[in-house]
Amino acid sequence: PGDQEAGELGLAAVPGRQAAFRQGLEAAVHYASAVGCRRIHVMAGRVPLGADRAAVAGEMETTFIENLRYTADLLAQKDMIGLVEPINNRITDPRYYLNTPHQAAAILEKVGRPNLMLQLDLFHCQIMDGNLSRNLETYFPLIGHIQIAQVPGRHEPNSPGELNFPYIFELLESLGYTGYVGCEYAPKGDTLKGLGWLRSYWESRGLQHGGTSNANE
To answer: Which residues form the Xylose isomerase-like TIM barrel domain (predicted)?
Structure first.
């Protein structure tokens, strides 16, 4: 994430911070290797304070592509995958550089490395663009990780909000998604109690805890 006390949130697209980005990436690879994690979120970072987004967009994209190619080469040696995540700039972070799956897909195409993929957080995607079904179908070949939270409160999937998660989960299954779904939300209360939504979802599908089929299915 860079120097968070200085207001940084990633460095991959920040001009002039390439050396610090590479140092942070090497540390992340070291930690990921130690715990057996094969995916690393490569954070793009924020538009520099006081800069006009449009004025620096070209330089930031060039920096991002350069750093992503470096990342891909390093991660390939470790059999790891790099992930880029669009973060909405309407609510969560007005200065974050990478904001939509369309922008991320265009950059990944320019980078052209198979071990770089899209980390699609449906909370951010809904806020920026909506159209989740079509976006999941369109960008599915690029998706390396999914994250979820209800919109707009960013709480549990079964909390009041805009998204129909049982439908979304079934859509992901129909598309053939076999990866993890990260629960990146703020529990409304106790964390364990808040996970009751998952038990209810399994039961609605005739599954036991852990997602295994029961004898009746």
So the answer is: 10-200
